[in-house]
Amino acid sequence: MARAAQQAGKQFEMMIEQANQVYKLQGKALVFKSEPSVKTISNGRGGFKSPIYAQSNGLDYFGTLKGGQGVFFEAKQTAETSFPLKQIKPHQVETLRTYDNLDTLAFLLVRFSKTGKVFLLPPKPVIEAWDGWTKYSNRASIPLATFEARGTEIAATNGCAVDWLDAVKQ
Questions:
Q1: Residues 122-135: pLDDT tens digits?
Q2: Are 77 and 70 in contact (CB under 8 A)?
Q3: pLDDT mean across residues, the chain
Q4: Separation CA 165–CA 154 (nearest Å)
Q5: Which of 69, 76, 59 is nearest to 23 (CA)?
Q6: Neighbouring residues of 2: CB distance < 8 A, sequence distance ≥ 6
Q7: Under 8 Å between Cβ of 123 and 150
Q8: Can you give the pTM of this predicted structure?
């Protein structure tokens, strides 16, 4: 089951990367995927080395839209009918909170694999759900109804399987 979830996550990532390539070719945006820092550790005898992945401090994607506006977003996928908050790390919520306070374009992009629906959710509902969960032991997930009411469903348009930029412009 875990392998299927990983493959579905990679598929979603590829859909986003394809959209980002289309935006680049069309001159609409230049967006990159963040990669975690890697340190190589030796065994002290000049032999065996192992990679250590440092924790990322930002969101999955960052870039610039035509006109110079920055864009930052985290992409997640779930097989559930609600989005489990445990899939988000504390630093990711704090990064969304900071970008929101700075009036910077930032959001959570979530794919519900059972339905194939993808939603763009702005920071406020994510932060509200996170704070409710971590501070008051409220619900530990964001229901699909919240995505439908406060987010934007992403369509496959403009040559992109996940046309998140069209949703940003709405």
A1: 999 999 999 999 99
A2: no
A3: 89
A4: 9
A5: 69
A6: none
A7: no
A8: 0.86
Q: What is the pLDDT of residues 19-70, one digit of tens each?
A: 999 999 999 999 999 976 666 666 666 665 666 656 666 899 999 999 999 9
CA separation (Å) from 99 to 5, 59, 73, 123, 150?
29, 11, 10, 8, 18
**Composition of the chain by helix, strand, coil, percent to 5:** 40, 30, 30
Q: How far apart are CA 152 and CA 164, in angstroms?
A: 9
Length of the chain as a residue count: 170
Q: Computed over its alpha carbons, how large is the radius of gyration of the chain?
A: 17
Pairing of strands 49-53, 82-84: unpaired
What is the separation of C-alpha 49 from the centre of its chain, rounded to a whole number of angstroms? 31
Task: For residue 82, give both structure tokens.
Answer: 């609600």
Q: How far apart are the first and last CA of the chain?
A: 36
Other C-beta atoms lying within 10 Å of the C-beta of residue 122:
16
CA distance 31 to 35: 13
Res 1 pLDDT > 60: no
Q: Helix (H, G, I), strand (E, B), or coil: what is residue 125? A: helix
- DSSP for 43-58, please give it: -SSS--EEEEEPPP-S
What span, in angstroms and rounded, lies between the C-alpha atoms of 142 and 133?
10
